[in-house]
UniProtKB/TrEMBL annotation:
Superkingdom to which the source organism belongs: Bacteria
GO molecular function, one term: hydrolase activity
InterPro entries given in the database record: AB_hydrolase (IPR050471), AB_hydrolase_1 (IPR000073), AB_hydrolase_fold (IPR029058)
Species of the source: Streptomyces akebiae
Gene3D superfamilies: alpha/beta hydrolase
Span of the signal peptide: none
AB hydrolase-1 domain: residues covered: 17-241
Any Pfam family: Abhydrolase_6
Name the UniProt record assigns to this protein: Alpha/beta hydrolase
Key words, A-Z: Hydrolase
Keyword Hydrolase (UniProt): yes
Length: 255
């Protein structure tokens, strides 16, 4: 497959935290959301890569499937983090890869957080509904992504999402998307501290499939958040901070 050079940024020092963004953006969206969550939390080295074909990570022609992306991310974690156990957070498609990384390398993952996870077998995805704002600001993508459509949310979208969209290699994502489903892993479910957070109004992936994960992971907490859509990390930062703080406490207790 050849070595893919993954671009990333990092902040802080201590226990590594690998944060994977969703499709169609780059590290800047995850960084903007999760740096707010980790503000004031000491002892964490937060690592935000650009997934292949997005941001400044090139997806060569040899990258042809989700399995190839997964291998790239596992190699990246080995190279940048080394042998230390790390926390793993994914939003949307990033959560799909995070699940697979934890399944493949459970001893390396100290805790798993899945935010608005994209999953095979999505079902009961609700219609889009705006809960705040006129519904008349921003572009079509903003209006279909956010359910809280305030000027503050539009500013976040235009600052952290729009610039990333311009860097997406659509040809590469379409090529990978033809084999988007990861090869099923037959190993036991990841048994470390897990948290699943879904938006009740998520019209991209819904919340129903995410609720199934509570039966899959033996040590999972599940929260379905009202008045939040797929942009939950932007729309409900204080609640997300509280949920992930509780998760970090469980991680510390188990390590």
């Amino acid at each position: 497959m050849g070595q893919v050079v993954v671009h990333y940024v990092e902040h802080g020092s201590g226990r590594p935290v690998l944060v994977l963004h969703g499709a169609g953006v780059d590290h800047r969206e995850a960084e903007a959301c999760f740096e707010l969550v980790f503000e004031g939390v000491a002892g964490l080295r937060r690592i935000y890569p650009d997934l292949p074909g997005m941001g400044r990570t090139i997806a060569p022609d040899t990258l042809r499937s989700a399995d190839d992306v997964l291998d790239t991310l596992l190699d990246f974690a080995d190279e940048v983090i080394g042998g230390a156990a790390y926390l793993l957070i994914g939003h949307s498609a990033g959560a799909y890869y995070a699940q697979a990384m934890a399944a493949r390398r459970p001893a390396k993952v100290a805790g798993l957080a899945l935010i608005c996870p994209f999953l095979p077998g999505l079902r009961d995805v609700p219609a889009h509904r705006v809960v705040a704002g006129s519904g008349e600001i921003g572009d079509d993508v903003f209006r279909s992504y956010f359910v809280i459509q305030t000027p503050a949310m539009l500013e976040r979208y235009e600052r952290y999402v729009t610039p990333a969209a311009a860097l997406v290699d659509q040809t590469a994502l379409e090529r990978i998307g033809e084999r988007w489903e990861l090869t099923p892993d037959r190993t036991p479910a990841y048994a470390g501290p897990t948290v699943v957070v879904a938006g009740r109004l998520d019209s991209t992936v819904g919340y129903a499939a995410a609720t199934d994960l509570i039966d899959h992971y033996p040590h999972a907490s599940l929260s379905v958040v009202d008045d939040a859509g797929h942009a939950l990390p932007h729309e409900q930062p204080e609640l997300l901070r509280a949920l992930l703080t509780e998760w970090l406490t469980r991680v510390e207790r188990s390590s």
